[in-house]
Predict the structure.
Amino acid sequence: MNWNQAYSLRSYLRSSLWIIPFVAIPLELIVARYLHQLDAWLGWSLVGFTPTGALALLQAFVSVTLAFMVFTFGSLLVAIQVASAQMTPRIIATTLLRNDIVRYTVGLFIFTLMFALSAQNRMEKEVHQLVMLVATLFGIISFAAFFYLIDYASRLLRPISILAQVGSDGLAVVAGVYPDPSIGPGGEAGRSELGQPERIIRHQGTSGIVLAVNVKLLRTEAERLNGIIEFVPQVGDFVGVDEPLFSLYGGVRAIDEELLRGSVALGSERTMDQDPTFPFRIIVDIALKALSPAINDPTTAVLAIDQLHRLLRAVGKRHLRGDEICDQAGRLRVIFRTPDWEDFVHVAFSEIRYCGSGSVQVVRRLRAMIENLVGTLPPHRHPALLEQLSLLDRELEKQFAYPEDLALARIADAQGLGGHSGSISR
């Protein structure tokens, strides 16, 4: 199995709701078999169920768990539709379908249902008391899990919960892609000019979006063959058939094409695994949807800016390495494009400033974010932020005709509207 096939399989398993419930079925068959054997060996009579009472209880568990599953899946489908319409469809695969609480709760319902059916089928004149005790415990746990799931789902689908989850996932992605602290502007230079490549490897198969790349393999092969491998697109880019995928320089021109193609995972939708700007994109999409005339919810946009502030501070404190990856001797081996500081700033500010410049809440919160980041990040991060502040001021002059409104909009406010000042510490 190639690296990209293994990656696709892992990603599918993480985002598939049916895997855990399906695994619960063979697990129940194994547990039920050994419990019946243990019950016959122990001969316990702890709970004292009669055949009539045991059958009635088991039938109740079967009916209840079936109802729980129908309600859960029906509610989940409605929740996905509402969440994608009110926020963004990007949260379905990245947040909702990867939620372990939902998957394991449904798995518990399946296990309890199968266990109750198995106990019914094996019961004749004799009641297996240990089996009934375990079935009762699983039934009680299923009730508790169902009530917890209702409460959890109602909290999960709030905008602040989705935004906070995406923000936390984004921090993990940023830490994975940029593991080192900032070392100043000198270490984030662009790539060197190498001239014309000696060989170009083009994409074959199905067009798709670059999800992840096995950079370690590329570096190892470049060192082994004493050459330079350039990965032409960037993670998150769409790559069509016959478009350049790799440019090769030096000894790597003789490398196996399939080995290189197998180091790239493509799919139909971006993921956050190696794409540090994608969590920004999701949060900005939620903010833009909130600022649309159909929804008109600037407070949700302010909550989104809170998470962008959180992410930008984390990015600004890290070393955003350039495109060049060198070996231990300092020789260039791989060219792998990653977003720089200006890319993150443009994603976080540009569209929200354009769509939310008419909202006092939004512009005051944006100003508070800029001022706070200027005060807390290293000096080489300031120019891009000050440029956004200048653009914000010019946008305000177009939006607010009255001097009083313009003066109000120019006050930094961490709450958007109602806070005391723009100074915040997080």
